[in-house]
Amino acid sequence: AMTNVKEDGQKLVNPVEVLAEAVKTFQRVMVNSQDHVIAAAVARAVSIAAMFPVDTLKTRLQASTGQMKNPLTVIFSEGNPYRGLLPSLAGQTPYGMLVFGSYQVYKEMFQNFFPQMGDRTRIVLAAVFGDITGSLWLCPSEVIKQQQQSGLYASFASAFQGALKQSGVAGLYKGYSGLVVRDVPFRVVQLVMYEECKKFWKERNKRETNDIENLVLGAVAGMVGGAATTPLDVVKTRLMTQGSTRTYKGALDCVKQTVQAEGIPGLFRGVGPRVLLIAPSCAIFFVAYEATIRALKRRSAERKNASISPVASASRSRGYQAPAPC
């Protein structure tokens, strides 16, 4: 009979068991953290909708080639700046939930299989793998969104059909490598910058940071990460928005052609809108997240109070609303 133990006494890793455990962990994370997951989804949707015109401006600047255009001309003369919002919300909102859940799964898996791994290394690796996993959902929506933003298609349906017609399902993952190559370094730069800035701030002020300070530090870290990874964002955008003629053979060919035609500045097209997009997005996300968490906790407290209060039950039976708990 086959065993799950090596000759040296070490336990073999069964891929099926690992997958089953990962699914259970993901489900447990989603259930135990449902308020945070819901709040993150709402906050992500609000921040995306609020800053979408800036995202559209960034995409149009990056997708264009040749002489730099006036940003005001680009945003006001090239169609509805909210074109592509639907696929963006459809991709980004579940993406945030998936990244959050898978991040917790990977973190626990690294803890179980590599107990000697340092905390910082485990967090960084879990964040990286979480982003890679989430990108499997995000990429199709990014392809459709950016093709609408750049003017290749006027509607969600036509962009979706066009991508499938050109390359089948693979057409929905055009630029996936560019998406991952952009997001993973961004996540690492953002994480390192945030931790180092927070450490410096705590040592300087001899106290823990408060919510407002964490918001500012997070925005600064995001801005630095966004600026540093703009060339990767340009490559991703151009790979996703190229038509059926296939202008670029891949990410390296895109970099080569861009530098040859436009010089190094071509790799930093849209850096202003990209940086300006990230900082307000962090602020909006934070405010929306906290407001949603408070609302969910208040609703939960009201339900708990109503379920244990005879007065509340009697009030409901008479058609009155029970008073909110103090």
Task: Write structural notes for this entry.
This protein is 75% helix and 0% strand. The protein has 326 residues and is mainly alpha-helical. Helix 4 packs antiparallel against helix 5 (119-149) and helix 8 runs antiparallel to helix 11. The longest helix has 38 residues, at 271-308. It is globular.
Write the layout of secondary structure elements.
Blueprint: H1 15-32, H2 34-63, H3 71-77, H4 85-113, H5 119-149, H6 156-167, H7 176-205, H8 211-228, H9 230-241, H10 251-262, H11 271-308, H12 310-317
For the CA atoms, what is the radius of gyration?
A: 23 Å
Low-pLDDT regions: 311-326
* Number of helices, counting only DSSP H or I runs of 4 residues or more: 12
What is the approximate shape? globular
Which structural category do the helix and sheet elements fall into?
mainly alpha
Listing every helix as H and every strand as E from the N terminus to the C terminus, the arrangement reads: HHHHHHHHHHHH
The biggest sheet, with number of strands, parallel, antiparallel or mixed sense and barrel status, is: none
Helix proportion range? over 70%
Relative strand content: under 5%
Distance between the termini: 64 Å
Strand elements, count: 0
- Summed over residues and divided by their number, the pLDDT gives a mean of 76
